[in-house]
């Protein structure tokens, strides 16, 4: 199928815009590649230090001919998604030996959970944890004793951070190794309903806790289609997983064999083979466009409107929100997964999952199916379903129709002809909105503003009944330079309650919303942020604000002369405690959301 002309045009625009940075990046990894095998060139004392921690692999490592795989792991047992990685390294070492290679844990990276820190001070470290993970990945790989790498991470900032660091070692072949989602707990709608009843004072704290534990109950990622599971969809579309690895549950034979295949694929695509596939070549402009398309086609997390530009920059590529906006107009919405529907990712997987979506996008000429992937068989393999036959891992063709067309659709019968993302622009700046979960009659909201500087102030006003009206809730000073751009997920239940009561409600913020946000229209990632002189700092209570997702506008309906002359509100002081003061250098250096909100990349000049 011929590629859709708009997708081709967006890709060409990205290639042209990225030419200087991409050329410099490819030159970098070619210089790294030209240095050849570093390990045999290291001094004997250096090598002895590198081998001292191993016994059974040392003889094979000494001859320097077999690939040594560096494992970078985000394991910790406080997070359900990353607790699955506990025994992975010891298993991976055995599987590497089976393939004639060796493997070592190169290093660990932090993995924090937004679900734990939502609404609390730790959330202000969340976005900057991505840069920290990238730096930790670079440290892990800096020993130059590895010819390939396996990256173990799955959740929100971890996958982007791993990639951002790994791409600076783009001459190495690498594979992303997911851990899979936990089994299904209580239905997501039931969980959301209890949250809203608690927000109204109609459910007790004990009832809420029991509900949450019933939803988040075991090892694996959360089962809603938030940032973590959007990560996995994007990795499939970029060809960085073993095909179909995204949503196999932990503890299954299928999950084990997919991980074994990931380890054993690396020696096959190493630089000593005839099929060298370094990650810096796999992640090109087309792969970045594929990630954006997969995100739009599945109604994925808005957080990736920040993460994908940051990943791209690490590979010398520049993508902006206009690219997302143009792609969204031609990429159909093919899934309904919570919060954009009632199904969870396990039901999505059963109905066809990522392989069905990618096959349909390819069949419709809506994705680049000629990218360089880590998989034997190329991109077409990502449109097939993995399975176990006897003891062997096999891939099977999917049926023409989905297992449940209330969850997944064909390109001829999408849920929507558009992907559900729009840019909003006006005298308040430039923001983005996810429309795929918002009822079309809520795409235009015009109402008086109520302006806040913290989400706790919003919750207090809600409890006091001060928001029981048509209202645009404005939460400013929540950008990366102000306080690290925390998610404002705690606002979802009270704003949902107000909407359920029949009020016309919207949110405007220079902060982020969770990948689990949904039905309330929200203009997010507003740039420039209020702390850095953005116009949102001019807003006052009572100003009428118009959010129009149809026209793509976001305006304070204030007389132009008055607006121009109006002073900016005083910025709140930066808070200390919970380690926030240690990240002050990142606040000061961070660039705007559309470029990825990264202090590290800004400081590196990337």
From TrEMBL:
Key words of the record: 4Fe-4S, Carbohydrate metabolism, Gluconate utilization, Iron, Iron-sulfur, Lyase, Metal-binding
Catalysed transformations (reactions): 6-phospho-D-gluconate = 2-dehydro-3-deoxy-6-phospho-D-gluconate + H2O
Known pathway: Carbohydrate metabolism; Entner-Doudoroff pathway
Binding residue positions for [4Fe-4S] cluster: 155, 222
Names of the cofactor(s): [4Fe-4S] cluster
EC number: 4.2.1.12
Domain Dihydroxy-acid/6-phosphogluconate dehydratase C-terminal: from-to ranges: 407-597
UniProt cross-references to Pfam families, sorted A to Z: ILV_EDD_C, ILVD_EDD_N
Family: Belongs to the IlvD/Edd family.
HAMAP family listed in its UniProt record: Edd
Protein name: Phosphogluconate dehydratase
Gene name in the database record: edd
């Amino acid at each position: 199928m011929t590629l859709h002309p708009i997708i081709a045009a967006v890709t060409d625009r990205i290639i042209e815009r990225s030419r200087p940075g991409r050329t410099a990046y490819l030159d970098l990894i070619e210089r790294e590649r030209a240095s050849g095998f570093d390990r045999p060139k290291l001094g004997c004392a250096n090598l002895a230090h590198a081998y001292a921690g191993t016994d059974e692999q040392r003889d094979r490592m000494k001859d320097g001919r077999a690939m040594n795989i560096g494992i970078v792991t985000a394991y910790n047992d406080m997070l359900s998604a990353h607790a699955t990685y506990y025994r992975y390294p010891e298993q991976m070492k055995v599987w590497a030996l089976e393939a004639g290679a060796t493997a070592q844990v190169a290093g660990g990276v932090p993995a924090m959970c937004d679900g734990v820190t939502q609404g609390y001070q730790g959330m202000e470290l969340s976005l900057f944890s991505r840069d920290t993970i990238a730096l930790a990945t670079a440290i892990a790989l800096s020993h130059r004793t590895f010819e390939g790498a396996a990256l173990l991470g799955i959740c929100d900032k971890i996958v982007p951070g791993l990639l951002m660091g790994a791409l600076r070692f783009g001459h190495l072949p690498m594979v992303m190794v997911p851990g899979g989602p936990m089994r299904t707990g209580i239905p997501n709608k039931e969980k959301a309903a209890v949250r809203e009843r608690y927000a109204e004072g109609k459910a007790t704290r004990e009832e809420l806790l029991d509900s949450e534990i019933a939803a988040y109950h075991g090892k694996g990622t959360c089962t809603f289609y938030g940032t973590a599971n959007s990560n996995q969809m994007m990795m499939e579309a970029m060809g960085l997983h073993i095909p179909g690895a995204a949503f196999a549950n932990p503890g299954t034979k299928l999950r084990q064999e997919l991980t074994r295949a990931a380890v054993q694929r690396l020696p096959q695509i190493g630089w000593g083979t005839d099929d060298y596939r370094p990650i810096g070549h796999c992640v090109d402009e087309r792969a970045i466009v594929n990630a954006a398309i997969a995100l739009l086609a599945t109604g994925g997390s808005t957080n990736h409107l920040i993460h994908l530009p940051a990943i791209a920059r690490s590979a010398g590529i520049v993508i902006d929100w206009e690219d997302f906006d143009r792609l969204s107009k031609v990429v159909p919405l093919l899934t309904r997964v919570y919060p954009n529907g009632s199904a969870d990712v396990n039901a999505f997987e059963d109905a066809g999952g990522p392989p069905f979506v990618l096959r349909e996008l390819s069949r419709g000429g809506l994705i680049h199916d000629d990218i360089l992937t880590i998989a034997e068989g190329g991109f077409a393999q990502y449109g097939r379903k993995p399975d176990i036959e006897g003891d062997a891992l096999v891939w099977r063709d999917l049926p023409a129709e989905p297992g449940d067309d209330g969850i997944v659709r064909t390109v001829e019968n999408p849920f929507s002809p558009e992907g559900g993302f729009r840019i909003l622009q006006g005298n308040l700046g430039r923001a983005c909105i996810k429309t795929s979960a918002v009822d079309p009659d809520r795409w235009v909201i015009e109402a008086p503003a109520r302006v806040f500087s913290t989400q706790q102030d919003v919750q207090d006003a809600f409890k006091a009944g001060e928001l029981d009206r048509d209202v645009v809730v404005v939460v400013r000073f929540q950008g990366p330079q102000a306080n690290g751009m925390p998610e404002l997920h705690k606002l979802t239940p009270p704003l949902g309650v107000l909407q359920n009561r029949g009020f016309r409600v919207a949110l405007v913020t220079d902060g982020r919303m969770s990948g689990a946000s949904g039905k309330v229209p929200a203009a997010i990632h507003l740039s420039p942020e209020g702390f850095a002189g953005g116009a949102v700092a001019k807003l006052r209570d009572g100003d009428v604000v118009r959010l129009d997702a149809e026209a793509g506008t976001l305006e304070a309906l204030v007389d132009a002369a008055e607006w121009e002359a109006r002073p900016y509100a005083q910025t709140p002081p930066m808070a200390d405690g919970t380690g926030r003061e240690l990240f002050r250098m990142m606040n000061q250096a961070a660039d705007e959301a559309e470029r990825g909100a990264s202090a590290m990349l800004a400081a590196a000049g990337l």
